[in-house]
Specification:
Length: about 160
């Protein structure tokens, strides 16, 4: 069990079926490992991850962009109201000891950047890749499955002393 471990799961407020399945599997696996799931608290990949975690008795935290806890998806157990809009992305990313990015758009990309700037490991599952001047940047740890993403996130959090 990974009690006391906080893993942020980031992704779009809308997602493909495949991304939704992956997010739900990630949520289930985090709950099985005893990790608390942190996300943006809305729909899409965030809701799927929370649904997965809740189905296995996990704890879910939603860092909400608006002014009402009622904006949270129904699987968020602990809604955090910020009234900060997209600025809340920094809070989501920096609240995890590691981050798992699944799909996503520019909001997800901003969360990846906030995490990497804070030396928080990012595991990517069908998400952004980075390059500079045509040279691939390996900052995002690539995973091929939900179970692999969770395993790599937990191991990376331990390695950098975030766990």
């Amino acid at each position: 069990m990974e009690e006391g471990l906080f893993i942020a799961v980031i992704g779009g407020s809308s997602c493909s079926e495949k991304e939704g399945r992956l997010a739900e599997e990630v949520g289930r696996e985090l709950a099985r490992r005893g990790a608390t799931l942190i996300c943006g608290g809305l729909q899409g990949g965030m809701e799927a991850a929370c649904r997965g975690a809740a189905s296995c008795g996990g704890i879910t935290v939603g860092i909400l962009p608006g002014n009402s806890r009622h904006d949270a998806n129904r699987y968020v157990q602990i809604p955090i109201v910020t009234g900060m809009g997209y600025a809340r992305n920094a809070i989501v990313a920096k609240s995890g000891q590691a981050v798992i990015a699944i799909g996503g758009s520019y909001g997800t990309l901003s969360e990846i950047a906030h995490a990497l700037q804070g030396n928080i490991p990012v595991v990517g599952l069908g998400t952004w890749s980075l390059s500079r001047e045509g040279v691939e940047d390996s900052s995002i740890i690539v995973a091929q499955s939900a179970a692999e993403a969770v395993e790599k996130a937990i191991a990376a959090a331990r390695r950098v002393g975030k766990a």
